[in-house]
Design a protein that fits this description.
CATH class: Alpha Beta
CATH architecture: 3-Layer(aba) Sandwich
Strand content: 5-15%
Number of domains: 1
CATH topology: Rossmann fold
Number of helices: 6
CATH superfamily: Peptidyl-tRNA hydrolase
């Protein structure tokens, strides 16, 4: 069994914000999976705030009897990537992302789970703090680029079910 989790914040006020691209990518993936063959995979949204995602992800792993953190793909926003870019990694640190840090903490420091980062762009510090930026909606111009990135992210997540990590990094990064 594999698990794909889209990290996000719950509630209407956070829909379509930069911090919720993990959920947006998961929504695209759900349509692609239902339109193709069946896979032994669970798609999930933790239902908790981003910074508290770890315990919810751990509960999902237990509930669905996922064998290893390597069988869990986390979809998450990335402030350090421009809007429209995605980056797959088979493991690694949180990179300063509090949602990933929460997952790593819940896994007792284990960083061996794959993650797919989706770029949301970084504001210039003098314009606005990043904490405000991640909770904003995308501009009209950004939405066009974002939709292409979400399609690519969904394709990458679907490929993750059957392809090795090295192939995904070459194909999608």
């Amino acid at each position: 069994m594999k698990l794909i989790v889209g990290l996000c914040n719950p509630g209407k006020e956070y829909e379509h914000t930069r911090h919720n691209v993990g959920k947006l990518a998961l929504d695209k993936l759900a349509k692609k999976i239902s339109a193709t063959q069946k896979h032994e995979v669970v798609l999930a949204i933790p239902g908790t705030f981003m910074n508290l995602s770890g315990p919810a992800v751990l509960n999902l792993i237990r509930k669905h009897k996922v064998a290893s953190p390597r069988d869990v793909l986390i979809l998450v926003d990335d402030l350090h990537l421009p809007v429209g870019k995605i980056r797959f990694r088979p493991e690694g640190s949180s990179g300063g992302h509090n949602g990933l840090a929460s997952v790593i903490d819940a896994f007792n420091g284990d960083q061996s789970f794959p993650r797919l980062r989706i770029g949301i762009g970084k504001p210039e510090e003098e314009v606005k703090p990043w904490k405000e930026h991640v909770l904003e909606k995308f501009t009209k111009e950004e939405r066009t680029v974002l939709n292409q990135a979400l399609e690519k992210a969904a394709d990458c997540a679907l490929s993750w079910l059957t392809e090795p990590a090295e192939a995904l990094m070459q194909k999608f990064n």
